[in-house]
Amino acid sequence: WLSEESTDNPVRLDKQMVFVVDPIDGTRAFINGDKRWGVAIALIAAGQPINGVLFMPALDEIYLATANNGATRNGAPIKTSQRHDLSGATLGGPKKALDALAQKGFGTIAEPRVPSLAYRLARVGSGHIDAALASTNAWDWDIAAADLIVRESGGLLTGLDGQQPRYNLPRPRHGILAVAGPALHKQLVAAVRGIQLS
User: Fold this and answer.
1) 124, 130 contact by CB (below 8 A)
2) Pairing mode, if any, of strands 90-92 and 109-110?
3) What's the distance, CA 177 to chain centroid?
4) 12-43 pLDDT, tens per residue?
5) In the predicted structure, residue 48 carries a pLDDT above the cut 60
6) What are the CA-CA distances from residue 33 to residues 51, 110, 111 (Å)?
7) Which H or E run contains 145?
8) Closest CA to 19 of 39, 4, 38, 2
9) Half-sphere exposure at residue 194, Cβ-oriented, CA atoms within 13 angstroms
């Protein structure tokens, strides 16, 4: 078990499978009455998510994914955007990053700030937005369930080195992440390199 709301126990490092749970992803939203908060749960095996759930109770949305078996939103299969060009793409992420992309000449359309990081990423999986970024403060519980949702909907979630995150490591924290459908992902990574997101 690994969770934002409980003390980390190093015993998890020796386990074949570990649950990674964020009981309230988007705590400030929850406190302020914003409906965009959720419960994220992933089952990790050999450093990768094999099951992922993101439940958004106030929005009545549930995203489910199982490794090699696709992803759904409220029971309907989902797929990432097939967009090829970053210019004009709808992008979620830190304002600083979106502003920096605009200064580089990418006319992206910024999605209004989404307080739940897992929800921001899952919206890429469902095709509601074309791509998303996460800054360097994402922990396993923030992204593991959404990672599988994105992958099983045909997208990519990687660091700027193009590598997929590994989970259940001694320090379960990640660097900058880029999330998009396969046609857009490489362009997004190239555009984001050199932008300070931390």
Assistant:
1) yes
2) parallel
3) 8
4) 999 999 999 999 888 888 888 889 999 999 99
5) yes
6) 29, 23, 20
7) helix 140-152
8) 2
9) 6
Hey, CA dihedral for 58, 63, 64, 67, is it positive or negative?
negative
Rounded-to-integer distance, Cα 47 and Cα 2, Å: 13
Question: What count of Cα atoms within 13 Å lies in the side-chain half-sphere of residue 22?
Answer: 26
The β-bridge partners of 64 are 53, 72
d(CA 191, CA 27): 31
CB atoms within 10 A of CB 97: 23
Instruction: Tell me how far apart the terminal alpha carbons of the chain are, to the nearest angstrom.
Output: 27
> Is the Cβ–Cβ distance between 152 and 71 less than 8 Å?
yes
The CA distance from 90 to 105, in Å, is 15
Q: Report the DSSP beta bridge partners of residue 163.
A: none
Average pLDDT estimate for 55-74: 97
Q: CB burial class (10 A; 0-12, 13-18, 19+) of residue 81?
A: buried
Stretch (H or E) spanning 132: strand 131-134
pLDDT tens track for 100-112: 888 887 767 777 6
Phi and psi at residue 76, to the nearest 5°: -100, 135
Closest CA to 80 of 129, 40, 120, 116: 129
Q: Rounded to two decimals, what is the model's pTM?
A: 0.94
